[in-house]
Design brief:
2 helices
Length: 60
């Protein structure tokens, strides 16, 4: 994996996580926000990983 691909993946995960937390941020409790952030980060990482390897498989 190239360093550029890693940075792009981190950026995509970060953007998705921030949007996820922002849309769900009706809660004022910090514990719920941390739980939302971690679940959003996990979902975004999985989605980004699957898409990366799918694109890599199709391109080769």
């Amino acid at each position: 994996m190239n360093p550029t691909d890693i940075l792009l993946s981190i950026a995509i995960v970060g953007i998705y996580t921030m949007i996820y937390v922002h849309l769900k941020s009706q809660f004022k409790n910090d514990k719920i926000r941390i739980k939302l952030f971690s679940s959003g980060f996990v979902y975004a990482t999985i989605i980004t990983g699957v898409l990366y390897y799918l694109i890599k498989f199709i391109a080769s």
